[in-house]
Specification:
Blueprint: E1 4-5, E2 10-12, H1 33-42, H2 48-51, H3 61-74, E3 78-80, E4 86-95, E5 98-110, E6 119-120, H4 127-140, E7 142-143, E8 147-151, H5 157-165, E9 173-176, E10 182-188, H6 191-201, E11 206-210, H7 212-228, E12 241-248, E13 255-258, E14 260-263, E15 277-282, H8 289-296, E16 301-306, E17 309-315, H9 319-324, H10 330-333, H11 336-348, E18 355-358, H12 361-369, E19 375-378, H13 384-392, E20 402-405, E21 415-416
Parallel strand pairs: 6-11, 8-12
Antiparallel strand pairs: 1-5, 2-3, 4-5, 4-10, 5-12, 7-21, 8-11, 9-10, 13-20, 14-18, 14-19, 15-17, 16-17, 16-19
Protein backbone atom coordinates (compact mmCIF):
# COMPACT_ATOMS: atom_id res chain seq x y z
CA UNK A 1 0.00 0.00 0.00
CA UNK A 2 1.38 3.41 -0.98
CA UNK A 3 3.01 5.61 1.65
CA UNK A 4 2.02 8.74 -0.20
CA UNK A 5 -0.75 9.66 -2.60
CA UNK A 6 -1.39 12.75 -4.76
CA UNK A 7 -4.63 14.63 -4.18
CA UNK A 8 -6.75 17.39 -5.69
CA UNK A 9 -5.96 20.18 -3.28
CA UNK A 10 -8.36 23.00 -2.53
CA UNK A 11 -6.36 26.24 -2.86
CA UNK A 12 -6.82 29.98 -3.07
CA UNK A 13 -7.89 31.22 -6.48
CA UNK A 14 -5.14 33.61 -7.61
CA UNK A 15 -7.58 35.29 -10.02
CA UNK A 16 -9.58 36.39 -6.97
CA UNK A 17 -6.78 36.71 -4.39
CA UNK A 18 -3.95 38.76 -5.86
CA UNK A 19 -1.79 38.92 -2.71
CA UNK A 20 -1.47 35.47 -1.17
CA UNK A 21 0.67 36.93 1.61
CA UNK A 22 -2.46 38.51 3.10
CA UNK A 23 -4.40 35.25 3.34
CA UNK A 24 -1.78 32.79 4.66
CA UNK A 25 -1.13 32.36 8.39
CA UNK A 26 0.93 30.17 10.75
CA UNK A 27 -0.45 26.93 12.25
CA UNK A 28 -3.28 27.43 14.73
CA UNK A 29 -1.24 26.33 17.75
CA UNK A 30 1.60 28.87 17.47
CA UNK A 31 -0.53 32.03 17.26
CA UNK A 32 -1.26 34.14 20.31
CA UNK A 33 -4.74 35.74 20.60
CA UNK A 34 -3.27 39.08 19.51
CA UNK A 35 -1.55 37.49 16.52
CA UNK A 36 -4.80 35.77 15.57
CA UNK A 37 -6.57 39.15 15.48
CA UNK A 38 -3.75 40.67 13.44
CA UNK A 39 -4.03 37.99 10.75
CA UNK A 40 -7.83 38.24 10.75
CA UNK A 41 -7.58 41.98 10.11
CA UNK A 42 -5.30 41.54 7.09
CA UNK A 43 -8.06 40.13 4.91
CA UNK A 44 -11.63 38.82 5.24
CA UNK A 45 -10.24 35.78 3.41
CA UNK A 46 -7.30 35.10 5.71
CA UNK A 47 -7.16 31.39 6.51
CA UNK A 48 -7.24 32.14 10.23
CA UNK A 49 -11.00 32.69 9.89
CA UNK A 50 -11.26 28.95 9.22
CA UNK A 51 -8.55 27.33 11.38
CA UNK A 52 -9.22 29.61 14.40
CA UNK A 53 -12.86 30.66 13.98
CA UNK A 54 -14.66 32.68 16.65
CA UNK A 55 -18.06 32.08 18.19
CA UNK A 56 -20.90 34.34 17.04
CA UNK A 57 -24.25 35.02 18.78
CA UNK A 58 -26.17 32.77 16.39
CA UNK A 59 -23.59 30.03 15.68
CA UNK A 60 -20.68 28.32 17.36
CA UNK A 61 -17.19 28.60 15.89
CA UNK A 62 -17.29 25.21 14.13
CA UNK A 63 -20.53 25.98 12.29
CA UNK A 64 -19.09 29.40 11.52
CA UNK A 65 -15.98 27.84 9.99
CA UNK A 66 -18.14 25.50 7.90
CA UNK A 67 -20.25 28.38 6.63
CA UNK A 68 -17.21 30.49 5.75
CA UNK A 69 -15.52 27.56 4.02
CA UNK A 70 -18.67 26.91 1.98
CA UNK A 71 -19.06 30.59 1.07
CA UNK A 72 -15.46 30.78 -0.14
CA UNK A 73 -16.06 27.70 -2.27
CA UNK A 74 -19.28 29.04 -3.76
CA UNK A 75 -17.71 32.40 -4.60
CA UNK A 76 -14.59 30.72 -6.06
CA UNK A 77 -12.25 32.25 -3.47
CA UNK A 78 -11.18 28.64 -3.03
CA UNK A 79 -10.95 26.27 -5.99
CA UNK A 80 -10.00 22.62 -6.36
CA UNK A 81 -7.23 21.39 -8.64
CA UNK A 82 -8.45 19.35 -11.59
CA UNK A 83 -5.72 16.70 -11.39
CA UNK A 84 -4.26 14.89 -8.37
CA UNK A 85 -0.84 16.29 -7.50
CA UNK A 86 1.80 16.66 -4.85
CA UNK A 87 3.10 20.11 -3.94
CA UNK A 88 6.80 20.87 -3.55
CA UNK A 89 7.41 23.47 -0.86
CA UNK A 90 10.67 25.42 -0.40
CA UNK A 91 11.39 27.71 2.55
CA UNK A 92 14.47 29.93 2.67
CA UNK A 93 15.24 31.48 6.03
CA UNK A 94 17.83 32.47 8.61
CA UNK A 95 18.39 30.84 12.00
CA UNK A 96 21.06 31.90 14.48
CA UNK A 97 22.68 34.02 11.79
CA UNK A 98 22.96 31.19 9.22
CA UNK A 99 21.06 30.87 5.93
CA UNK A 100 19.05 27.71 5.25
CA UNK A 101 16.84 26.39 2.47
CA UNK A 102 14.47 23.60 3.50
CA UNK A 103 12.75 21.59 0.78
CA UNK A 104 9.72 19.38 1.31
CA UNK A 105 6.52 18.34 -0.37
CA UNK A 106 2.84 18.10 0.56
CA UNK A 107 0.88 14.97 -0.26
CA UNK A 108 -1.44 12.49 1.40
CA UNK A 109 0.04 9.90 3.76
CA UNK A 110 -1.59 6.53 4.32
CA UNK A 111 -2.77 5.82 7.87
CA UNK A 112 -2.55 2.52 9.71
CA UNK A 113 -2.72 1.31 13.31
CA UNK A 114 -0.53 -0.51 15.78
CA UNK A 115 2.39 -2.55 14.52
CA UNK A 116 1.39 -1.83 10.92
CA UNK A 117 2.13 1.87 11.37
CA UNK A 118 5.57 3.13 10.40
CA UNK A 119 4.73 6.64 11.63
CA UNK A 120 6.46 7.48 14.92
CA UNK A 121 5.27 10.33 17.17
CA UNK A 122 7.46 11.82 19.90
CA UNK A 123 5.06 14.08 21.84
CA UNK A 124 2.06 13.49 24.07
CA UNK A 125 -1.27 15.01 23.08
CA UNK A 126 -3.83 16.89 25.16
CA UNK A 127 -7.48 15.85 25.13
CA UNK A 128 -8.92 19.37 24.80
CA UNK A 129 -6.77 20.16 21.74
CA UNK A 130 -7.70 16.84 20.09
CA UNK A 131 -11.39 17.50 20.75
CA UNK A 132 -11.16 21.01 19.27
CA UNK A 133 -9.45 19.88 16.05
CA UNK A 134 -11.78 16.90 15.77
CA UNK A 135 -14.87 19.12 15.90
CA UNK A 136 -13.41 21.43 13.27
CA UNK A 137 -12.41 18.60 10.91
CA UNK A 138 -15.84 16.99 11.28
CA UNK A 139 -17.62 20.27 10.59
CA UNK A 140 -15.73 20.78 7.32
CA UNK A 141 -14.93 17.15 6.51
CA UNK A 142 -11.46 18.36 5.58
CA UNK A 143 -7.81 18.43 6.65
CA UNK A 144 -6.99 22.11 6.97
CA UNK A 145 -3.31 21.98 7.98
CA UNK A 146 -0.55 19.47 7.31
CA UNK A 147 1.09 17.27 9.84
CA UNK A 148 4.90 17.57 9.56
CA UNK A 149 6.82 14.34 8.96
CA UNK A 150 10.52 13.58 8.47
CA UNK A 151 11.91 10.83 6.23
CA UNK A 152 15.45 9.72 5.44
CA UNK A 153 17.00 10.36 2.01
CA UNK A 154 20.78 10.51 2.28
CA UNK A 155 21.22 10.36 -1.50
CA UNK A 156 18.78 13.30 -1.93
CA UNK A 157 16.82 11.42 -4.58
CA UNK A 158 13.67 13.49 -4.06
CA UNK A 159 15.60 16.75 -4.06
CA UNK A 160 17.19 15.78 -7.39
CA UNK A 161 13.75 15.17 -8.91
CA UNK A 162 12.66 18.62 -7.74
CA UNK A 163 15.79 20.33 -9.11
CA UNK A 164 15.62 18.62 -12.51
CA UNK A 165 11.87 18.56 -13.12
CA UNK A 166 10.13 21.19 -10.98
CA UNK A 167 12.36 24.10 -9.97
CA UNK A 168 12.30 25.76 -13.41
CA UNK A 169 8.50 26.05 -13.29
CA UNK A 170 6.70 29.14 -12.01
CA UNK A 171 5.75 28.66 -8.33
CA UNK A 172 2.10 29.03 -7.44
CA UNK A 173 2.95 30.60 -4.05
CA UNK A 174 5.82 33.10 -3.81
CA UNK A 175 5.64 35.17 -0.60
CA UNK A 176 7.76 36.37 2.32
CA UNK A 177 6.23 36.17 5.80
CA UNK A 178 6.60 38.43 8.85
CA UNK A 179 9.72 36.54 10.00
CA UNK A 180 11.44 37.03 6.66
CA UNK A 181 10.91 33.41 5.58
CA UNK A 182 10.55 33.04 1.81
CA UNK A 183 7.83 30.50 0.92
CA UNK A 184 7.40 29.00 -2.56
CA UNK A 185 5.04 26.21 -3.65
CA UNK A 186 5.02 24.23 -6.93
CA UNK A 187 2.48 21.73 -8.25
CA UNK A 188 3.64 18.35 -9.62
CA UNK A 189 0.99 16.18 -11.29
CA UNK A 190 3.28 13.85 -13.27
CA UNK A 191 2.17 10.36 -12.14
CA UNK A 192 5.48 8.73 -13.10
CA UNK A 193 7.54 11.19 -11.08
CA UNK A 194 5.17 10.89 -8.11
CA UNK A 195 5.56 7.12 -8.26
CA UNK A 196 9.33 7.58 -8.29
CA UNK A 197 9.14 9.79 -5.22
CA UNK A 198 6.97 7.25 -3.43
CA UNK A 199 9.47 4.52 -4.25
CA UNK A 200 12.30 6.69 -2.89
CA UNK A 201 10.61 6.71 0.51
CA UNK A 202 10.62 2.92 0.57
CA UNK A 203 9.38 1.00 3.59
CA UNK A 204 10.99 3.25 6.17
CA UNK A 205 9.92 4.72 9.49
CA UNK A 206 8.55 8.25 9.35
CA UNK A 207 8.88 10.65 12.28
CA UNK A 208 6.31 13.27 13.25
CA UNK A 209 7.96 16.62 13.90
CA UNK A 210 4.82 18.78 14.28
CA UNK A 211 1.09 18.14 14.25
CA UNK A 212 0.72 15.37 16.83
CA UNK A 213 -2.81 16.49 17.68
CA UNK A 214 -3.84 16.54 14.02
CA UNK A 215 -2.33 13.10 13.52
CA UNK A 216 -4.26 11.69 16.46
CA UNK A 217 -7.50 13.24 15.17
CA UNK A 218 -6.91 11.65 11.75
CA UNK A 219 -6.30 8.26 13.38
CA UNK A 220 -9.41 8.44 15.56
CA UNK A 221 -11.66 9.58 12.71
CA UNK A 222 -10.34 6.71 10.61
CA UNK A 223 -11.09 4.16 13.35
CA UNK A 224 -14.61 5.50 13.74
CA UNK A 225 -15.26 5.38 10.00
CA UNK A 226 -13.94 1.82 9.76
CA UNK A 227 -16.15 0.74 12.66
CA UNK A 228 -19.24 2.01 10.85
CA UNK A 229 -18.47 0.31 7.53
CA UNK A 230 -20.62 -2.66 6.55
CA UNK A 231 -18.48 -3.91 3.67
CA UNK A 232 -14.78 -4.70 3.55
CA UNK A 233 -12.64 -1.54 3.29
CA UNK A 234 -10.41 -1.16 0.25
CA UNK A 235 -7.79 0.85 2.13
CA UNK A 236 -8.13 3.65 -0.39
CA UNK A 237 -11.07 5.44 1.25
CA UNK A 238 -10.45 9.18 1.81
CA UNK A 239 -10.39 8.75 5.60
CA UNK A 240 -7.41 6.38 5.25
CA UNK A 241 -5.18 9.36 4.41
CA UNK A 242 -4.03 12.55 6.07
CA UNK A 243 -2.52 15.65 4.43
CA UNK A 244 1.17 15.69 5.28
CA UNK A 245 4.27 17.79 4.72
CA UNK A 246 7.37 15.61 4.20
CA UNK A 247 10.98 16.77 4.56
CA UNK A 248 14.38 15.08 4.67
CA UNK A 249 15.76 14.52 8.17
CA UNK A 250 19.26 14.03 6.72
CA UNK A 251 19.40 17.59 5.39
CA UNK A 252 21.38 20.26 7.24
CA UNK A 253 18.52 22.61 6.43
CA UNK A 254 16.20 20.85 8.87
CA UNK A 255 16.52 23.05 11.93
CA UNK A 256 15.26 22.26 15.43
CA UNK A 257 15.33 25.32 17.65
CA UNK A 258 15.71 24.98 21.42
CA UNK A 259 12.75 25.69 23.69
CA UNK A 260 13.94 27.74 26.64
CA UNK A 261 12.33 27.68 30.10
CA UNK A 262 11.32 30.70 32.17
CA UNK A 263 10.25 30.43 35.83
CA UNK A 264 8.68 33.08 38.05
CA UNK A 265 10.36 31.94 41.25
CA UNK A 266 13.82 30.52 41.84
CA UNK A 267 16.39 30.59 44.69
CA UNK A 268 18.37 33.82 44.60
CA UNK A 269 21.63 31.93 45.25
CA UNK A 270 22.49 29.61 42.30
CA UNK A 271 25.00 27.93 44.59
CA UNK A 272 22.27 25.49 45.57
CA UNK A 273 22.92 23.81 42.21
CA UNK A 274 26.60 23.14 42.89
CA UNK A 275 25.92 19.62 44.17
CA UNK A 276 25.13 18.50 40.64
CA UNK A 277 26.55 21.21 38.38
CA UNK A 278 29.80 22.99 37.68
CA UNK A 279 28.88 26.66 37.51
CA UNK A 280 30.84 29.14 35.38
CA UNK A 281 30.14 32.86 35.29
CA UNK A 282 29.70 34.44 31.87
CA UNK A 283 30.61 38.11 31.60
CA UNK A 284 27.96 39.05 29.02
CA UNK A 285 24.56 37.50 28.27
CA UNK A 286 25.22 37.83 24.54
CA UNK A 287 28.30 35.63 24.91
CA UNK A 288 26.40 32.73 26.48
CA UNK A 289 25.26 30.87 23.38
CA UNK A 290 28.73 30.00 22.05
CA UNK A 291 30.10 28.28 25.20
CA UNK A 292 26.68 26.68 25.76
CA UNK A 293 26.72 25.11 22.30
CA UNK A 294 30.34 24.03 22.73
CA UNK A 295 29.65 22.41 26.10
CA UNK A 296 26.52 20.70 24.77
CA UNK A 297 28.53 18.65 22.29
CA UNK A 298 30.05 16.48 25.03
CA UNK A 299 28.05 17.09 28.21
CA UNK A 300 24.70 18.26 29.53
CA UNK A 301 24.71 22.04 29.83
CA UNK A 302 22.26 24.90 30.38
CA UNK A 303 22.47 28.64 30.49
CA UNK A 304 21.05 30.33 33.59
CA UNK A 305 20.05 33.98 33.42
CA UNK A 306 18.95 35.90 36.52
CA UNK A 307 19.18 39.54 37.52
CA UNK A 308 22.39 38.66 39.37
CA UNK A 309 24.14 37.56 36.18
CA UNK A 310 24.72 34.90 33.54
CA UNK A 311 26.00 31.41 34.28
CA UNK A 312 26.78 28.22 32.44
CA UNK A 313 25.64 25.05 34.23
CA UNK A 314 27.35 21.77 33.33
CA UNK A 315 26.31 18.46 34.86
CA UNK A 316 29.22 17.22 36.96
CA UNK A 317 29.07 13.59 35.87
CA UNK A 318 26.88 11.69 33.41
CA UNK A 319 26.72 8.81 35.89
CA UNK A 320 24.37 10.98 37.96
CA UNK A 321 21.73 10.45 35.30
CA UNK A 322 21.45 6.68 35.83
CA UNK A 323 21.77 7.09 39.58
CA UNK A 324 18.87 9.52 40.03
CA UNK A 325 16.61 9.08 36.98
CA UNK A 326 14.74 5.79 36.96
CA UNK A 327 12.17 6.29 34.21
CA UNK A 328 12.65 5.88 30.50
CA UNK A 329 15.28 4.58 28.13
CA UNK A 330 18.88 5.74 28.02
CA UNK A 331 17.98 8.22 25.28
CA UNK A 332 15.09 9.64 27.28
CA UNK A 333 17.15 9.96 30.47
CA UNK A 334 19.85 11.87 28.62
CA UNK A 335 17.53 14.49 27.15
CA UNK A 336 18.55 17.90 28.43
CA UNK A 337 14.89 18.61 29.23
CA UNK A 338 14.71 15.48 31.40
CA UNK A 339 17.91 16.36 33.26
CA UNK A 340 16.79 19.94 33.84
CA UNK A 341 13.54 18.68 35.34
CA UNK A 342 15.13 16.15 37.70
CA UNK A 343 18.23 18.05 38.83
CA UNK A 344 16.92 21.62 38.83
CA UNK A 345 13.16 22.02 38.76
CA UNK A 346 12.30 19.06 41.02
CA UNK A 347 15.02 20.05 43.50
CA UNK A 348 13.78 23.67 43.53
CA UNK A 349 10.11 22.66 43.81
CA UNK A 350 9.13 24.17 40.47
CA UNK A 351 5.91 22.68 39.07
CA UNK A 352 5.24 22.17 35.38
CA UNK A 353 2.37 24.66 35.39
CA UNK A 354 4.77 27.37 36.62
CA UNK A 355 7.09 27.03 33.60
CA UNK A 356 6.84 29.30 30.56
CA UNK A 357 8.30 28.04 27.28
CA UNK A 358 9.71 30.15 24.47
CA UNK A 359 12.04 29.67 21.52
CA UNK A 360 13.05 33.35 21.73
CA UNK A 361 16.30 33.99 23.63
CA UNK A 362 15.57 37.73 23.77
CA UNK A 363 12.17 37.06 25.34
CA UNK A 364 13.86 35.14 28.15
CA UNK A 365 16.22 38.05 28.80
CA UNK A 366 13.41 40.61 28.63
CA UNK A 367 11.12 38.76 31.05
CA UNK A 368 13.88 38.50 33.67
CA UNK A 369 15.08 42.08 33.19
CA UNK A 370 11.54 43.44 33.54
CA UNK A 371 10.82 41.45 36.68
CA UNK A 372 8.25 39.17 35.04
CA UNK A 373 10.38 36.13 35.88
CA UNK A 374 13.07 35.20 38.36
CA UNK A 375 15.17 33.02 36.08
CA UNK A 376 15.52 31.83 32.52
CA UNK A 377 17.11 28.55 31.48
CA UNK A 378 18.68 28.60 28.02
CA UNK A 379 18.67 25.25 26.24
CA UNK A 380 20.59 23.62 23.42
CA UNK A 381 18.51 22.15 20.56
CA UNK A 382 17.63 18.46 20.51
CA UNK A 383 19.53 16.56 17.79
CA UNK A 384 17.27 14.85 15.25
CA UNK A 385 19.01 11.54 16.02
CA UNK A 386 17.94 11.77 19.68
CA UNK A 387 14.33 12.51 18.67
CA UNK A 388 14.47 9.57 16.27
CA UNK A 389 15.76 7.16 18.95
CA UNK A 390 13.12 8.19 21.49
CA UNK A 391 10.31 7.89 18.94
CA UNK A 392 11.51 4.42 17.90
CA UNK A 393 11.43 3.42 21.58
CA UNK A 394 7.75 4.34 21.63
CA UNK A 395 8.44 7.06 24.19
CA UNK A 396 7.23 10.66 24.37
CA UNK A 397 9.45 13.64 25.13
CA UNK A 398 8.69 16.11 27.92
CA UNK A 399 6.43 19.02 26.90
CA UNK A 400 7.87 21.70 24.61
CA UNK A 401 11.17 19.97 23.99
CA UNK A 402 11.47 20.73 20.26
CA UNK A 403 10.53 23.58 17.94
CA UNK A 404 10.87 22.86 14.25
CA UNK A 405 11.51 26.07 12.34
CA UNK A 406 10.13 27.44 10.14
CA UNK A 407 6.52 26.30 10.45
CA UNK A 408 4.48 25.14 7.48
CA UNK A 409 2.03 27.87 6.50
CA UNK A 410 -1.70 27.25 6.84
CA UNK A 411 -3.75 28.03 3.74
CA UNK A 412 -1.41 26.47 1.18
CA UNK A 413 -3.55 23.40 0.54
CA UNK A 414 -6.69 21.75 1.95
CA UNK A 415 -7.65 18.08 1.66
CA UNK A 416 -11.41 17.63 1.40
CA UNK A 417 -12.50 14.10 2.29
CA UNK A 418 -15.80 14.01 0.38
Amino acid sequence: MSSIKPFRAVRYNTEKIKDLGKVMCPPYDVMSPDEREDFAARSPYNFVHIILPKDAPDEDRYKRARRIFSEWHNSSILVQDEKPAIYFYKQEYKALGQKYSRLGFISLMHLSDGEDSRVKPHENTHAHAVEDRSKLWRALNANLSCIFVCYSDRQKKIEKIFTKKVLSQQPWVDIVDDDGVWHRLWCLDDAALISEINASLGDQDLFIADGHHRYRVAQELRRQKLAKMTGKPTGDEPFNYVMTYFTNMDSRDLQILPMHRVVKSFPSDPGVLEEYFRIDKISNKRELLIPLARAGKNEHAFGLYTRSGVRLLRLRNKSLVDKFINEGSKEYKHLDATILKYFVFDKAGIKSEDIIYTKDFDEVISMVDQGQAAAGFIMNPVPITQLQAIALNGEKMPPKTTYFYPKVLSGLTVYTMD
